[in-house]
UniProtKB/TrEMBL annotation:
It comes from the Bacteria. One of its GO terms (molecular function) is metal ion binding. Belongs to the ApbE family. Its cofactor is Mg(2+); Mn(2+). The keyword Transcription does not apply. InterPro entries: ApbE, ApbE-like_sf. Its EC number is 2.7.1.180. It catalyses: L-threonyl-[protein] + FAD = FMN-L-threonyl-[protein] + AMP + H(+). Mg(2+) binds at G202, D314, T318. This is FAD:protein FMN transferase. It is an enzyme of class 2 (transferase). It comes from Delftia acidovorans (strain DSM 14801 / SPH-1).
Length: 362
């Protein structure tokens, strides 16, 4: 049986240039998608020649594709399709790019309507759906709060991450509210009500995985594993009619990861392992609860979600992270979501999974 891909997860970055997050498989056949350490993949002796690998950098992180290519078609076409898909996501959805579609929308005049590219509109509609379903626990207009706490592209460089004063927090919260954005579904337009700042950092990386998979399928490829910055989507199967196998490190005990067989399934994780700060004896996560305007205060360290689409898995992982260990588990269970929640408690690390997640275990 082939060795599983082992996954630890980095936060979504969506920067136009590489260098912030690192993600690539290592030569043991186990993939480590962590911010620290990077090793390019080496082909294992046990891998058939038709199982090929492409890697690269985009969106401030790295990507990799494991491709079953039995006809040995030239890989240049696949690489170009992958790079074009990732460049499109940056061009449309990166808050770090002043000329991106999302940045232009955020700067637009109050009361103005904007025709959006289909990819941008798809992500925005999905984000607003989950914002409504979660009662605003996740909100794509949370950008002003992310910046205020020092985690966004407009954070004060001199100050860095830190606790804002009450007045600044109140002013930022006044600009947050998914209900202010109005969509024209027929015209694929969105209303900028004024000073609303959209941030796709909790969903766009997952969408980029789906878009890469879509572009590869358009080229006629059916069996591959796509990874962008730690978010993955498995399509088809490995050579030998074997499922792709992913070992999910719970972060509670990475020495005993959960190995999952995946066919036509995506996996995404939200966590506070890499992007946080400590002040006054408290750890402040980069995950902001839009309802309070502050970083989440519960003990969840990571949430892993499986879904047919990586965009949905990415969004749901963020939703559950904000909701917390109890409410998040209930939310996922009620909707049949396959989710694994890892929590830091006074008694040590604790893990909980939904019925749908447990059903996927071998």
């Amino acid at each position: 049986m082939p060795a599983p891909v082992r996954v630890s997860f980095a936060p979504a970055l969506l920067q136009g240039s590489a260098g912030r997050g690192l993600a690539a498989p290592v030569s043991t056949g186990v993939a480590s998608f962590a911010v620290s350490g990077y090793a390019p993949q080496a082909v294992r002796r046990s891998d058939p020649a038709a199982l090929q690998t492409l890697t690269g950098e985009a969106m401030g992180t790295t990507w990799s594709v494991r491709l079953h290519n039995p006809d040995f078609r030239p890989l240049d076409e696949a690489r170009q399709a992958i790079e074009a898909a990732l460049a499109l996501v940056v061009r449309q959805m990166s808050n770090w790019e002043a000329g991106s579609d999302i940045s232009r929308f955020n700067r637009a005049e109050p009361g103005s309507w904007h025709a959006l590219p289909p990819e941008f509109f798809t992500v925005l509609a999905c984000a607003l759906d989950w914002a409504q379903a979660s009662g605003g626990a996740w909100d794509p207009t949370v950008g002003p709060l992310v910046d205020l706490w020092g985690f966004g592209p407009r954070a004060e460089k001199e100050q860095g991450a830190g606790i804002p004063d009450a007045y600044a927090l109140r002013r930022a919260r006044e600009r947050v509210g998914y209900q202010h954005i109005v969509l024209d579904l027929a015209g694929r337009r969105a209303l900028q009500p004024g000073a609303v700042h959209v941030d796709f950092s909790g969903i766009a990386k997952g969408y980029s995985v789906d878009l890469v998979a879509e572009r590869l399928q358009a080229l006629g490829h059916t069996d591959f594993l796509v990874e962008v910055g730690g978010e993955l989507r498995a399509c088809g199967q490995r050579p030998g009619n074997q499922p792709w196998r992913v070992a999910v490190a719970s972060m509670a005990d990475q020495s005993t990861p959960l190995a999952l067989p995946l066919r036509d399934m995506a996996i995404a994780t939200s966590g506070d392992h890499w992007h946080a700060f400590e002040q006054g004896g408290r750890r402040y996560s980069h995950t902001i609860d839009p309802r309070s305007g502050e970083p989440v205060a519960h003990g969840l360290t990571s949430v892993t979600v499986l879904h047919a689409e990586c965009m949905q898995a990415d969004a749901l992982a963020t939703v559950l992270t904000v909701l917390g260990p109890r409410e998040g588990l209930d939310f996922a269970e009620q909707r049949g979501v396959a989710a694994l929640l890892c929590e830091r408690t006074a008694q040590g690390p604790a893990m909980a999974m939904t019925t749908a997640f447990a059903a996927l275990l071998p």
